[in-house]
Amino acid sequence: MNWKHTAMTLTLVAGLAAGMTSCKSQEKKDAEAKAKIEAAAPGVTVVVKDGVATLSGEMADEAAKTAAEEAAKKVEGVKSVVNQTTVAPPPAPAPAPVVVNPDDSLTSAATAAIQEYPGVTVTVKDGVVTLNGEIKKADLPKLMQKVNEIKPKKVENKMTVK
Questions:
Q1: What does the alpha-carbon distance between residue 25 and residue 28 come to, in Å, rounded to a whole number?
Q2: Angle between helices 62-73 and 2-40 (to 10 degrees)
Q3: For residues 149 and 123, is the Cβ–Cβ distance under 8 A?
Q4: Pick from 50, 55, 7: which is nearest to 28 by CA?
């Protein structure tokens, strides 16, 4: 009986040791697969568990996303790939440059804009249009629109509204 008990215990211990060895070898395979994927697809975050590779992170474009997934599928020990990477949005277009007309053209255009409004004077210096004098409240929005349309750097309104 003692011999049977000892043999059974040894068999159980050997089975557990073999099971633990296979777990560790899977962990080792997963670590090796992770290193290979990271080398093949730099910049991608990789997690490998039980042969399933999960990719995450932001890719420059759809082609880079697909290439990372294909590279991961080719790695030995990878059974499947879960691609959770995202594609970066395109950069915003650069704002259009601000166009400021030269003082000469601003002066002639501003002088033409105020002709309908007696009592209003205009001066232009370094792209800044300065309005002086008196104007009716109802006329102010129309004049301001006309002056802004000539593309000055700035409009200084020093008029008195009556």
A1: 5
A2: 150
A3: no
A4: 50
- Return the sign of the alpha-carbon dihedral for residues 66, 68, 72, 74: positive
For residue 109, give every residue at least 6 positions away whose Cβ sits within 8 Å of its Cβ, in sequence order, or none: 101, 150
Supply the pLDDT for residue 21. 47
List CB contacts of 56: < 8 A, sequence separation 6 or more.
44, 45, 47, 84, 85
Q: What percent of the chain has pLDDT over 90?
A: 70
State residue 59's pLDDT score: 92
Q: What tokens were used for 65?
A: 């996303």
- Range in 17-21, 28-32, 120-124, 158-162 with the lowest mean pLDDT: 17-21
Collapsing DSSP states into helix, strand and coil, what is residue 76? coil
Q: Dihedral, CA atoms, 76, 78, 83, 84, nearest 10 degrees?
A: -120
